[in-house]
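Our consortium's second objective concerns turning raw sequence data into structural hypotheses that experimental partners can test. To show how far this objective has progressed, the report includes one record in full. It was chosen at random from the queue rather than selected for favorable results. The single chain below, 248 residues long, was entered without modification.
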Amino acid sequence: MRIVVLIFLLSGSVVFGQRNLRDSSISTFVSALNYKFNLTDGDVGDLWGFNHEIGLSVDYKFKNNLTVGINSGFIFGNQFRDTTIFAGIVNDFGQITSMGGSPAQILFLMRGMTANANVGFVWSKLGNNPNSGLWIQLGGGFLMHKIRIESLYDDVPQLEGEYRKGYDRLHMGFEAREFIGYLFQADRRFLNFYAGFEFIQGFTQNQRLYNFDLGGPDPGIKQDYFYGIKVGWLIPIYKRSAKQYYVD
């Protein structure tokens, strides 16, 4: 919800000029609200299946079509794979029992975030105008992900309060990011978007000092891979063209 509010605040400061983007390459801020469908591999792939990411980015495109920018995203999903983490509290029937003795209804959800700075270039020879084309970006920044444990209707003492930290697999670390896609900016007004393929390589560490299933910490660097299709709706920000006046 905060991301949606922020994008509308940004859009409120936009000046949509009458400049025709077909004429020349211009310098402009470009903000984007984006969505990505992620597949996983590596260590995070052992823990989670596919997931989703929504985010916000702000880039600046120079006249020579170099771009610099920042972006952040919120990761969420429910395709939990590694149930052995909870093997110590599962009964013979494969269930986790509530304090009342009945099978507990528990959700294991993926929650995470990314934050990056990036540089890129737009090859306008492949575009519909000098401000559009093949967009390649390279970047790096921060990655975090964990298991969000939600007990819907039951009290499960083993998964309450501080005990959750022994199961949530909180990981943080550095990530590298590559994107290749197409940036489309219409000659006028609102039709602006991009779409392409993004690959993220994360190098994270478990932040918990004790994991119940391991009987201690989980040392070492994890290699977490996320890849998938990313699309975004863009709002270009540029100055209004100067009007010309003639006097006979």
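The partners drew two points from this record. The chain is about 5% helix and 50% strand. Residues 2-12 form the longest helix (11 residues). Both points have been shared with the crystallography group to help prioritize constructs.
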